[in-house]
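The freezer alarm interrupted the setup, so I double-checked each line after restarting. Inputs confirmed:
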Amino acid sequence: MVVQKYLHDLAAWGRTSTALQEEIIGRTKIDNIELDDDAAPRKSHKTLATIVDADGNEHDILRDNMPFGRTGHGEFGTYFIGYTRHLWVIEKMLERMFIGEPKGAYDRILDFSTAHTGTTFFAPSRTTLAKLASGG
Amino acid sequence: MAGHAWDRVPIDAQSIEAPLSQAAIFLVVGVSDGADALAKIRDVLGGLDDLVKTVGFRDLSARLSCIAGIGSALWDRLRVPMKPRELKPFAAIEGVPHKAPSTPGDILFHIRAERPDICFEFVRILLQTLGSAVMMIDEVPGFRYFDARDLLGFVDGTANPAGHEIGILRARRRGGCRVRWRQLCGRAEISA
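Predicted 3D structure, all chains:
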């Protein structure tokens, strides 16, 4: 599992038109409908975060992101948590977002969201956790 | 979700497929130096199931769940001969202009419940028990925002695996190391 704490620049996001926000995210804002961005000059967040291997198989991850914030401190964030069998799926996802696909065409959601942490963990099963606890 | 006993009994620790919730706390800690700290960590990880029951039974409808994740350095310190093959520290990404930093953490506790007070109570007792064995690195209380939106105003999480895939996940669970999202797992990534 990988976690990252993102803080958003909501003022700058608020100055961005809804049409451009939807283009960046890859979904409509009100009703969450996926937008086809095959012909778009820049890939959307939705497309960059979709991982397909060489055989055409899509590798999903399980997310349970949560918003957090302290309005009085100007803190508005998203805590990203992704569970995956293979770490490379999330690594690939983040590489596509931060480096870009193609290189330089990074995820424009990052113009409004800054990663402040990044840490990898392994979630053992109950059985394995019990073994860890008893010293193997 | 049919077939779950979540409303009748506490949710087992490490249940990755536990339901998305209205509230969560993400707790990242570092483990202090010394054998005493490691002994305390073993003790608390071994009792995690019981702690979920202790707190969760007070309101089963709140569906308290907790998953502990272990970082690479702590796994080495615990000296158990079964380190997951792919476990390594987060690799920072030096993009232009945006960077993804790598930051420390020995244990992540991912705590979910329908009630923030239940999450809070769990963390309170957990940290009281851990005492000086851990150093706090980050504590983030999260909340569900309207119809699962992020603070940018968009619905977040739609691309998650769907209900029937959770069924596959449950069917495939077996005695070994259930690692992460079992539907995508099949078998554990543990090197002997």
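Quick read of the result. The first strand of chain A starts at residue 2 and ends at 8.
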